[in-house]
């Protein structure tokens, strides 16, 4: 099977009623020049989560004219998620944890707010509390319909806030988070995080309000409320979500796995395996191979561009667990890629 | 069985994966003194939908200190919906079609806006269009998880906007809609509707933007997008939702039933049976009997107070279809009633 397992076993429940949840948010950290390539310009990063959600659900974007691209024009990993979820046809829910731009779609609102620049500002404690609590309520409600939840994310600069959370919670995480660029701007991220963790409050919720982005709190809340098994579908950011979950309920981790891509596992600039090990959570990775793709914009994944996002890894893993091969997924991705680039 | 059928047959699919959707909204029509009792004062009616949603999901209200009550203190029919849905344990989704007050809960937002006073203002055409389109998208997405949808509503003064829509679409509906009060303020409703339908645009969407409330458009959209069977859970308002659905897709009505209460069927001040017959839609009614209740606030249902709302009839019908009796539902309702009044 085109899935590899790391750091312990996790079995995707067979015949489980499954849903995909995409949690979107923005943080003003993404406006720091050079910190993220999840948008053609820093300002456009605030449109990326809404556009990703629109592309995932409707196959086209409304808040911007095209799909989200990097400054060099490489399209969003949402094309992989959409391809995989078209194969398996499970319900998809968009959850807004705090995005500056709202998608033109029905979405579930958690009552959050867009994240601030963590060097200077902090979320209100009550906003963080509301995000977690509303997330729990949503997770509980989804438990009445589903046994297995795949939770993806879209938030530009989310690896920086993830690193801040991990460091703030005491993990050895400096320089270990990934990037959508092959040139991970580690010095910049480190400077932002070190500035953010100065004078950190000791209370957990205040700490999270200061360091976290809204997506991580929404994801943690949903996972805490959900009664079945959960795949956190993302890269190093999802180790921060798992770390937050662990702070609230250590036992919960038994039902949780991170589902990501080969490109995150193989990323020399980050270390998801050591992060996951420190937290105590297994990882599944979709062993996709885009090296023989007809499209340059997909081939570059093999050179470390994009890597993951919008639950690309987790949705691929789910499609593979349902009998599709990595090759079939690539074919579907190419079909979608062709339709958006012509 | 404690369900009666009118105007044709409808079979609740057995073993269907079922969800309950509560669509909430407000209209400034509810601020017209005397038009509705769905709130202790006209101003408080704007809190009722959010509070109903909170009570349904969490068993308590946050936007107001107590459950919504009529000016004489009779509590919301949400207690019946909560009782029935506690028995059958299906997932519940709150959908905001345009409510002035938002619930402190995760809810699905359709991108609508609170409704205006239909005598003076109109919704923007594009808002009406967005509500229908986002509703369709949501319905389509829910089809990936569910075979049967129960759609309830909470919107004070919704019977007046329902009458306006029905009259505007050419139905003989004047004076035929119900009320949460045993003294249906028919003259006032008639005056409001006759003023609203003056100089009515001929295009369907503009007509609906002028006369409809956001809830009806949201419900119609969800139903239009959903692929399985649907129960519109409400009183005479749901005939207006069905009439809107019929304008867009006549065939769709084959999969739709209205699910309501005995108190709506027996209401001498309204005529749901003739409305449903004109539209061509069957009705199921939960034959609940509160006459021997221990609580005066429930006994008054038998004298025409409250009657229906928040999907009370439809959720009771669903519970009955799963083997619970009307007596068991009353017991559960009394349990909840006792907990909120002590």
Automatic annotation (TrEMBL), chains A, B:
Origin: domain of life: Archaea
Pfam families: DBI_PRT (PF02277)
MF (Gene Ontology): nicotinate-nucleotide-dimethylbenzimidazole phosphoribosyltransferase activity
NCBIfam families in alphabetical order: nicotinate mononucleotide-dependent phosphoribosyltransferase CobT, PRK04447.1-1, PRK04447.1-5
Xref: HAMAP family: UPF0284
Family the UniProt entry places it in: Belongs to the UPF0284 family.
Protein name: UPF0284 protein SJAV_04860
Species per Swiss-Prot/TrEMBL record: Sulfurisphaera javensis
Lineage, uppermost ranks: Archaea, Thermoproteota, Thermoprotei, Sulfolobales, Sulfolobaceae
């Amino acid at each position: 099977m085109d899935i590899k397992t790391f750091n312990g076993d996790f079995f995707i429940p067979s015949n489980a009623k499954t849903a995909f949840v995409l949690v979107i948010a923005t943080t003003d950290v993404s406006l720091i020049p050079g910190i993220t390539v999840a948008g053609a310009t820093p300002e456009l990063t605030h449109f990326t989560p809404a556009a990703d959600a629109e592309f995932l659900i409707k196959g086209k974007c409304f808040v911007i004219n095209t799909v989200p691209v990097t400054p060099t024009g490489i399209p969003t990993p949402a094309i992989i998620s959409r391809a995989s979820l078209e194969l398996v046809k499970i319900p998809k829910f968009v959850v807004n944890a705090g995005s500056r731009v709202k998608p033109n779609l029905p979405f579930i609102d958690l009552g959050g707010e867009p994240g601030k620049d963590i060097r200077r500002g902090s979320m209100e404690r009550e906003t963080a509390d509301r995000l977690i609590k509303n997330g729990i309520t949503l997770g509980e409600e989804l438990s009445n319909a589903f046994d297995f939840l795949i939770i993806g994310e879209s938030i530009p600069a989310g690896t920086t806030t993830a690193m801040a959370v991990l460091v703030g919670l005491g993990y050895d995480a400096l320089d270990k988070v990934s990037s959508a660029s092959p040139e991970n701007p580690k010095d910049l991220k480190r400077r932002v995080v070190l500035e953010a963790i100065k004078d950190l409050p000791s209370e957990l919720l205040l700490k999270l309000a200061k360091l976290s982005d809204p997506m991580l709190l929404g994801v943690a809340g949903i996972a805490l409320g959900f009664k079945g098994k959960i795949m956190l579908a993302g890269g190093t950011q999802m180790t921060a979500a798992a770390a937050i979950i662990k702070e609230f309920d250590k036992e919960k981790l038994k039902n949780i796995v991170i589902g990501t891509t080969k490109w995150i596992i193989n990323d020399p600039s980050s270390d998801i395996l050591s992060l996951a090990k420190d937290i105590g959570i297994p990882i599944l990775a979709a062993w996709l191979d885009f090296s023989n793709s007809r499209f340059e914009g997909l081939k570059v994944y093999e050179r470390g561009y994009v890597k993951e996002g919008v639950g690309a890894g987790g949705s691929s893993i789910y499609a593979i667990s349902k009998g599709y091969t990595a090759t079939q997924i690539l074919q579907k991705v190419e079909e979608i890629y062709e339709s958006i680039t012509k």
